[in-house]
Amino acid sequence: MERPPTPPSHPPQTYAVPRRARTASVTVDEQGAVTGWSDGARLLLGYPPAEILGQPAARLLAEPDRSAWRNAADVPRWSGIVALRHSDGHRLERDVLVHRRPSGERPGGTEWLVVSAVSGPAEAAAGQALGEWAFQQSPCVSAVFDEELRLARASVATQRTLSLAEGMMRGLRLTDVVPYEGSAEAEVSMRRVLDGAGPQEVRLHLDPADPERTWHARLTPLADSGGRVRAVALTAHADASQQLVRRRMLVLGDAGVRIGTSSDVQRTARELTEVAVPDFADVCAVDLLDALPRADALAPGHPQRPGAPPPDGVALRRAAVRSRPGTAALPRPSGDVLRCPPWSPSGRCLAEGRGRVYPGDDKAVSRWEREDPQAAGWIRESGTHSLLAVPIRAGDSTFGVALFGRNRRTEPFDADDLWLAEQLAARTATGIQSAARAQRQHTTTMTLQRSLLPQTLPEQAALDIATRYLPSVSQAGVGGDWFDVIPLSGTRVALVVGDVVGHGMRAAATMGRVRTAVRTLADVDLPPDELLSHLDDLVVHLSAEEAGADNAAETAGGVGTTCLYSVYDPVTRRLSAARAGHPPPAVVTAGTVRFLDIPAGPPLGLGGLPFESYETELPEGSLIALYTDGLLEPREHDIDDALDTMFAALGRPAETLETVCDRVLTSMLTHRPDDDIALLVARTRALHADRVATWELPFDLAAVAEARKLATGQLAEWQLEEAAFVTELVVSEMVTNAFRYGRPPVRLRLIHDDHTLTCEVFDSSNTAPHMRRAHTYDEGGRGLLLVGQLTRRWGTRHGGTGKTVWAEQHLAEG
Description:
Blueprint: E1 22-28, E2 34-37, H1 39-45, H2 49-52, H3 67-70, E3 77-85, E4 91-102, E5 110-118, H4 124-137, E6 141-145, E7 151-154, H5 156-162, H6 166-169, H7 174-177, H8 183-194, E8 200-204, E9 215-223, E10 229-238, H9 240-258, H10 265-276, E11 283-289, E12 314-323, E13 337-340, H11 345-352, E14 356-359, H12 363-371, H13 373-381, E15 386-394, E16 397-406, H14 415-452, E17 463-470, E18 479-487, E19 493-503, H15 505-523, H16 528-550, E20 562-569, E21 574-580, E22 586-589, E23 592-595, E24 614-617, E25 623-627, H17 639-651, H18 657-668, E26 677-684, E27 692-697, H19 703-717, H20 724-741, E28 746-752, E29 756-763, H21 783-790, E30 793-798, E31 803-810
Antiparallel strand pairs: 1-2, 1-5, 3-4, 4-5, 6-7, 6-10, 8-9, 9-10, 11-12, 11-16, 12-13, 14-15, 15-16, 17-26, 18-19, 19-20, 20-21, 21-24, 22-23, 22-25, 25-26, 27-28, 28-29, 29-31, 30-31
Helix pairs in contact: 9-10, 9-14, 10-14, 12-13, 14-15, 15-16, 17-18, 19-20, 20-21
């Protein structure tokens, strides 16, 4: 981009530089001391070297605030008018040019070179003649240097390129104006021109804003009417081929960083247009197939090779479009469906599988404009004189077409531009392919994870429950967070939350295996700490299996998985829980929010480390909140703020648990989470004494009849006479087994909730009953078989001492 010339420091005028003119040059070190003093400086300011060397440079300034010098310390070059003080005390204002450069005396140090021209009387007529000769014979960036190699005239283009006014440069040599690579060699060539060697060719670095840019310069002798060479004209132009290659490489490098940064197909298409405009083209459109290749077509072995499009054309959806500011907007915005005929640039591109360059008057472009002005009219409206169409392909899969147009740039697209466009399109295709695969994998993982999570909450009378699950939006994919609600015997309910390490398909599959193991262990009615110990062993085995199969570090098999397992008993209103590296649950009682002080325990998969159970009594109507750590990891605030926010949301009264869940999430999150979030909120119920009956029985087979009588009497009190027959048989068989195979004491308990009648028999023996197959003439052995046939389910749970055999009947709604 061209820069405007620096405003001149004096009104424009034309004069020659005197033959005896000198350059005043001074070097100043980092401490501001004068380290170099030229003869021109002595002529300008009157100080001999011995008097000024080593002295502060500020001594030379007429202005006490030194403000004119402050900018020079921070930039590589500075120019301006500076008020100086002559040795005899008078003030003079001079144009000075300041260069910052490496110190020649101290390695790694810096010094400043200050230069100014020392001019005598003006020779306006001669200067005007030189200027006329120069600007009549110089076609581009040009300057005129006199016989002493000092600049006499500079064209406007030269001033713009160097960002210096002509008045600032007049009287200085090329090595003063541009002390860069090639300047000294150019002065040697200038001297040859003055000596009659004829025109010379040199290479220079002229632009301080772009020191790597090379300029090709021609040095031409300027002769007077008598044929004597009086000056040298320098004309220069940028090395176009080198700059073009550099620009293309920059565009290609930019594409490697900016295209394909997300798993969003539309965003990937936009990234291509942002890279292409304005550095490569003035307008760019990305049109994708209305139906992208199927997921299975993206896999190896399912090629989608180019072929003839249908006679009525192919459907393309405009995914992204961008044009240089000031260029006519494209009539088809993003999202529109285009029908591209087979002979159109897009149709031919898809059919042939390769790109083409089209001039603005190409027959295919003209026909396209005539027959579908909405799709192609922008070519003429925007003044596009060169069009380039390339397919967006990755391997054997084609995703669409990229169109590039030029209307502001004068040069048309060429074969090298076609190559660059194909590279940009290939990078885009790779991004789209990766995005499509990521979306497919994300969908598959989500489907798997959803199928593994509870679809509906089971019926139970111990708790009111509401849940939420929010998948993450990170590129890593869906994680392995889960929750579960498991009805247990005796109307108890287990609440579980867990978090498997990692994301994606593997984490979801591991989550399914761990969740299934928890449900299996819960059916055995293990205490929370024992259940986590068994689960820890399982994760260790999973890790060993996966490491042996894949031999990869990332196959952790669930190592580091966290889990919280809790059991609530509505009869005793007690909650027992244990956790393996998981955040503790929050409990709200009487408006007070607190964490339960459950020992943390190690994450699962480490092996051999103990877990501890915690037990507490909760009043009826208490609120329990279980969650995964994604809830406490918002971007905007720290963990303490997150906990305060969660406590405030839980502590506010709410009519329903659904409201509580929504309130927690909306107060904690301002955007979709970076990690999965599972949230389970439960409100406790209680089974009061009128719903529970317990009796301790004498250890005598004769007490079986008394047990049946007590049970039927209680059923009559509960108005459950229709369940009396089955209950008598169940009680008789279970109590008999306790007397025959167990040890005292023996207790019978009946529990009645809304839809279930539970019969429990406790004895202090740890021997578990089991069904056995009775032969035809056996007198016994059929008791548990009858219990299993007459009840919905039955089982045994072990405590610290003894066991409880239980059986549940489903009660029909009255």
